Amino acid sequence: MKKFQLTFLLCGAVLLATAQNDDITVCHTSPTEKFAFFAADKDFNMSHPNPVPYVHQSETGKMVTFKTPDGKEASGYVLMAKSKTNNWIFVFQEWWGLNDHIKRESEKLYNDLGNVNVLALDMYDGKLATTGEDASKYMGEFKQDRGTAIVKGR
Q1: pTM for this one?
Q2: Element (H, E) at 74
């Protein structure tokens, strides 16, 4: 049996917002409920300026699709190590979705860490937000079951 080492990174402001806002209580709630709470919070929404559009160019990374346990397909941005390895880093998008900023940050990790595979998961199934309203909507619509299926996909 092969042994896999997984490292999870969150490229987002949800945990940061939790740490900075003493008025938020997040115990005894599911991650999905926490996301919905932040999506509805005006201060949280106002603290995120709209992303500056740009196109990430890469010779290494590419978009891929894979099957998920719920019978659907998911997608992600993958950068495969130059030498075969079981070392993987999963990158979770910000509330904007799997945009070119997340792809660029994933590629930075890939280049900085060396022989590692990096997969940035598309937790919104292709939806990309360019405004806070859209980001809030997509974050509020996120379903834990679908998110779990995406993470467990192959």
Answers
A1: 0.71
A2: strand 73-79
